[in-house]
Specification:
CATH topology of the largest domain in chain B: Rossmann fold
Bound molecules: adenosine-5'-triphosphate, iron/sulfur cluster, magnesium ion
Helix content of chain B: 25-40%
Order of helices and strands of chain B: EEEHEEHEHHHHHEHEHEEHHEEH
Largest sheet of chain B: 8 strands, mixed
Order of helices and strands of chain A: EEEHEEHEHHHEHEHEEHHHH
Number of strands of chain B: 12
Strand content of chain B: 15-25%
Structural class of chain B: alpha/beta
Shape of chain A: globular
Distance between the termini of chain B: 36 Å
CATH class of one domain in chain A: Alpha Beta
Strand order of the largest sheet of chain B: 6-7-8-3-9-10-12-11
CATH topology of one domain in chain A: Rossmann fold
CATH class of the largest domain in chain B: Alpha Beta
Helix content of chain A: 25-40%
Oligomer: heterodimer
């Protein structure tokens, strides 16, 4: 498999200033604080972690919608943080984004057809007639109908608007699509439609996804590999099955233990992690997780662990095993009726 | 089972529009028992919030309760005066919402807002006593350094901490029933686990009943005793939490279960439910789920299927349930 994207030691720090005229710097928000990962062609890497851990900032840095404080983003071997002019435009065509809020990301005065063909116009692709044909093709690809091109965004439901956002991102045939919480605002039945669509498109078009989400069950369904972020850093990264069956970082374990399962026989098994996430203006010294970690030792308060073999924890090799029990699954009656549902849905 | 704490009977809440009255809650009957948790699950717009606001008599114009009763003991809350209802709120029934920031007043300290809730029902309490009881209330919801937090403002607290304050305010007068409308939807999963844990502990301590509204079937399995599944303003399935997952009956419930990815299972494709929820001003004839239902037949469009008992304690509003019997026939 060939590498599409290489992110090296990426950081984004925001100075915090006080005072109106002679503003002086009173602090530094370390939104992203040394992140490295690779993404292969046709692969899905998920970024997970709690609110404020730096997922969206990482996404923006990767697309160079914002400038990094330090670090490199190599796309097909070229560092895009140094590009400008035509080469930057070429990169932008290859890397697209789908946002969480399909309502906010669509121009209300544009028809759906205009919304989808705008990126093609920006990149001078085709003439008016071929763009119209391409819009029709894209609408069909995402499960909408050609006549929808004449309608406006507000006439569509949340799930349909997300389909429009996906069609727009695919219009210029990118290799990389960054999905920033693409299904988080949708109802579960619609979320499932969009998740199925994204997977189907990936298989057909060979897309690579950088997929940001906070729902680990969704992530497990769509991702090949998962990176767990905490306070601006990746604390664990790995193949998804290994990460769920043998989570090595205490924070990954805490995340998995906090998920309520749709299975009442496991009632009461959810175990909360104590405390709150510290402010990214005030990241704890040593291991940034030590203020909440049940295993913290002296070394954790003094030395910042580096990401090694996919985990950043001094004690990773000494912790007792923990992981999701994959033996559960649907109850027999539920499985039987779901199978009937699927059969009936396929027939009608 | 003993006499329920709250019995909702045939509740119908409508919104007046230029095109006539539109039902948001349409003939809902439910029971809540002492010390138990009733879960209400369903997708956006199915009427979960309007149902809970109706119980609290907080539905604002152009909405109104058009029919039905909300029996708390011998009293019908739907027919109380506003003054009588103010006495019920807080003391008998309290409510918490999804977004604690919008329900907390940003210009008043945490302590001021908590003591207001206490003072409303106990106007003779002294200031010192109010402060003590307020700090006590913060302690009960496990807020660290409650004396300091008492004097802080909502923006100084994290989302989880704000939801704890909301719970402290709701429980200040020891209500018999807490209505929690998506109390953890806006929170991170580890903070959600803290809040769910807290609600469970407080319920064990006080014996209060809870109505927990959520769209997350994991939260339903983790927290509830009884469950009602709502679709388009109606309850379509009602049973205990175990049976909902082990013996799900209504095709909509099946669709929901098939839509969620599970950690303990690998599936190529999620089941999903085709189409979208119909708007309340344009409901399909007959069963409201019929345009999306893979089992729909002509008679599903003829009339609205009533809730009927499939086995004792398990009610389903579908003419074809159990589906294996009708598909085979
Ligand atoms: N322009 C900015 N100036 C200052 N701080 C910022 C700025 N943008 C983001 N931050 C801070 O950086 C941190 C990371 O933000 P980011 O949006 O990347 O988080 P996230 O992981 O996407 O969170 P969420 O799950 O809530 O979307 C947050 O603490 C945020 O407040
Ligand atoms: N003020 C209002 N005027 C008109 N219709 C309303 C009003 N408030 C609610 N409705 C309608 O009542 C129906 C039920 O809304 P409700 O808020 O109870 O849904 P919900 O199940 O709580 O959804 P969510 O999961 O999004 O919170 C919706 O179709 C909504 O559009
Ligand atoms: S390094 Fe120490 S504090 Fe950090 S996660 Fe590992 S055990 Fe916990
Ligand atoms: S009554 Fe008919 S349309 Fe409604 S859920 Fe049952 S089978 Fe489906
Ligand atoms: Mg974000
Ligand atoms: Mg609601």
């Amino acid at each position: 498999m060939s590498v599409l994207l290489e992110v090296e030691n990426l950081a984004k720090h925001y100075p915090v200033r006080k005072g109106a005229i002679l503003a002086r710097q009173v602090g530094l928000v370390r939104a992203v604080d040394g992140v490295s990962f690779t993404l292969n062609r046709g692969e899905t890497l998920a970024l997970v972690g709690e609110s404020g851990c730096g997922k969206s900032t990482t996404a923006r840095l990767v697309l160079r919608l914002i400038e990094p404080t330090t670090g490199a983003v190599k796309f097909k071997g070229t560092d895009i943080t140094t590009l400008d002019g035509a080469t930057l435009k070429g990169f932008r065509r290859n890397a697209q984004i789908v946002f969480q809020d399909p309502y906010a990301s669509l121009n209300p005065r544009y028809t759906v057809g205009q919304t989808i063909s705008e990126p093609m116009e920006v990149h001078n692709i085709g003439d008016a007639a071929s763009r119209r044909a391409r819009v029709e093709e894209l609408l069909k690809l995402v499960g909408l109908a050609p006549y929808h091109a004449q309608r406006y965004g507000h006439e569509f439901s949340g799930g349909q608007r997300q389909r429009i956002g996906i069609a727009r991102a695919l219009a210029v045939e990118p290799d990389l699509v960054v999905c920033d919480e693409p299904v988080s605002a949708l109802d579960v039945s619609i979320q499932a439609q969009v998740v199925n669509l994204l997977r189907d498109l990936q298989r057909r078009l060979g897309l690579a996804y950088l997929f940001i989400a906070h729902d680990l069950a969704v992530v497990k369904h769509v991702a090949d590999r998962i990176a767990v972020m905490y306070l601006g850093r990746i604390v664990e990264i790995g193949e998804k099955r290994a990460l769920f069956s043998n989570p090595r970082h205490p924070y990954t374990r805490a995340l998995l233990a906090a998920i309520p399962h749709p299975d009442p026989s496991r009632k009461g098994r959810v175990t909360p992690l104590g405390g709150d996430v510290p402010s990214p203006m005030n990241i704890p010294p040593g291991c940034r997780f030590h203020t909440r970690c049940p295993y913290a030792q002296d070394i954790c308060r003094q030395q910042d662990p580096v990401l090694k073999d996919g985990v950043a924890c001094h004690l990773a090799d000494q912790l007792p095993p923990a992981g999701v029990d994959f033996a559960g699954g649907l109850a027999p009656n539920a499985a039987k009726r779901l199978a009937l549902y699927a059969e009936a849905a396929a027939r009608s | 089972m003993s006499e329920p704490l709250l019995r909702i009977e045939g509740l119908r809440t409508v919104f007046r529009t230029s095109g006539g009255d539109v039902p948001a809650v349409d003939g809902v009957s439910l029971e809540v028992h002492r010390g138990k948790t009733l879960g209400i699950v369903g997708e956006s717009g199915c009427g979960k919030s309007v149902l809970s606001l109706s119980v609290m008599r907080l539905v604002a114009h152009p909405g109104r309760i058009a029919a039905g009763r909300v029996m708390l003991g011998q009293r019908d809350l739907a027919s109380l005066s506003m003054a009588e209802m103010r006495q019920v709120r807080g003391r008998d029934i309290a409510m918490i919402f999804q977004e604690p920031m919008t329900s907390l007043n940003p210009v008043h300290s945490v302590g001021f807002q908590i003591t207001e809730a206490i003072r409303a029902h106990d106007p003779r309490a002294s200031n010192a006593e109010l402060r003590n009881r307020g700090i006590e209330a913060l302690k009960r919801v496990r807020i660290p350094s409650p004396e300091r937090r008492f004097d802080e403002y909502p923006h100084q607290l994290s989302g989880g901490m704000r939801q704890r304050v909301m719970i402290a305010m709701a429980l200040a007068c020891s209500p018999k029933l807490l209505i929690a409308d998506e109390p953890t939807t806006a929170l991170d999963v580890t903070v959600q686990a803290q809040i769910l844990d807290l609600l469970r502990e407080l319920q064990a301590e006080t014996g209060m009943a809870i109505i927990l509204i959520t769209h997350d079937l994991g939260v339903i399995a983790e927290m509830t005793d009884e469950v009602a599944v709502m679709y388009s303003g109606k309850v379509v399935e009602r049973t205990n939490a175990r049976a909902l997952f082990e013996d799900p009956q209504h095709p909509y419930t099946l669709g929901l279960l098939g839509s969620i990815p599970r950690l303990d299972e690998d599936r190529e494709n999620l089941l999903a439910i085709r189409g979208t929820v119909p708007p309340p001003f344009n409901l399909p004839p007959g069963c409201r789920f019929n345009p999306r239902c893979p089992f729909a037949i002509d008679s599903c469009r003829a009339e609205i299927p009533p809730l009927r008992s499939i086995i004792p304690g398990h009610e389903v509003a579908c003419i074809r349930a159990p589906v294996e019997a009708s598909v085979a026939a």
